Amino acid sequence: MRILLVGAGGVGTAITRIAARRSFFDHLVVSDYDLARAQAAVAALGAEETRFSARRIDASDQAAVTALLAEERCDVLLNATDPRFVMPLFEAALAAGAHYLDMAMSLSSPHPERPYEECGTKLGDGQFDRAAAWSEAGRLALVGVGVEPGLSDVFARYAAEELFDEIEEIGVRDGANLTVEGYDFAPSFSIWTTIEECLNPPVIWEKERGWYTTAPFSEPEVFDFPEGIGPVECVNVEHEEVLLIPRWVDAKRVTFKYGLGDEFIETLKTLHRLGLDRTAKVAVGGVEVAPRDVVAACLPDPATLGDRMRGKTCAGTWVKGVKDGAPREVYLYHVVDNEWSMAEYGSQAVVWQTAINPVVALELVAGGVWSGAGVLGPEAFDPRPFLDLLNDYGSPWGLREQ
Predict the structure, then answer these.
(1) Taking the complete model, does pTM exceed 0.90, yes or no?
(2) How far apart are CA 30 and CA 57, in angstroms?
(3) Chain-centroid distance, C-alpha 221
(4) Number of C-alpha atoms within 13 angstroms, CB side, residue 347?
(5) For residue range 41-53, what is the model confidence (pLDDT) as tens digits?
(6) DSSP 217
(7) Distance separating alpha carbons of residues 352 and 394, to the nearest angstrom
(8) pLDDT per residue over 2-39, tens digit each?
(9) Residue (of 375, 330, 326, 334) closest to 352 by Cα position
(10) Rounded distance, CA 324 to CA 158, Å?
């Protein structure tokens, strides 16, 4: 297998460090708009690692990406950029006859009249609209295969297959006790993506109602996270799992709640009030710039914060239902300690936790364990090989009876 990785930021660099310890691929081309960043990711692996090379690419240039896939004879494109570039990369892979993986899906847009009641364009609609073309081409677009979405979806399928007879609700719950020394406000993941998912109307799915929306940060609840993280208040946030899980897993309700904290929520609300969350460009001193890009440029790169971060991050899926006639609740989870990920891989916990899952998925695809054609989410596949391989990577998952 030959892989084109697009994006050499925090997640992309962590992907190279994880993949370098595996033998399932022949070559991995690390590409980025900033060639120096791609070269740095490759150089960090050491001169003895010859399976990696660096190239410059503009992720928005579909034709250029298609040409690079052909030139490098790549079998698969792994997208590690932000969601703005999903569609050109997705289409480039199809045009080149390559498979495709991403960790975030095509962007949504709110309903024009009833944004907090009805869905407009949903996350992933742009990709699912092209499912027939991918099926006809006999190529796989494996979408949403990071940690959330990704591992959380695998947990949902595993629960449905092995832990429950009937499922009342599947609720993805994400929380952490991470702190960043020296900063009053320093998100541990891309602020561009964080603004997108936190300020858009959250989506909920119910079997009798289908997909609908609610107000941002609605329905707060305190969720007790494992391994010393403890209780964290979580709120509704727009996320791909709610759009993916119901397509393959039978449940009466699907939700996603994120532990943000009051200070983080107030900061996001302030950005929104000031219009600094907008992506449409405005003129500033004769230069056109998107306000959200300015916010991202003013904050530290999350990939550089690892040495200042302390604590753990937890991604997981809470499931409530019935097994053998008795009620049951479980929380399937994956915890990463930042001190461990920095010592072992030199990557901070949040980006490392995101990065490991597409590498696991690539190994399953390379070995033919996961196969298919069309636009498919992680829950479309057998979950057990993924969870077993995650353990083999030295990153075990857990199950807690509630």
Answers:
(1) yes
(2) 10
(3) 23
(4) 25
(5) 999 999 999 999 9
(6) T
(7) 13
(8) 999 999 999 999 999 999 999 999 999 999 999 999 99
(9) 334
(10) 17
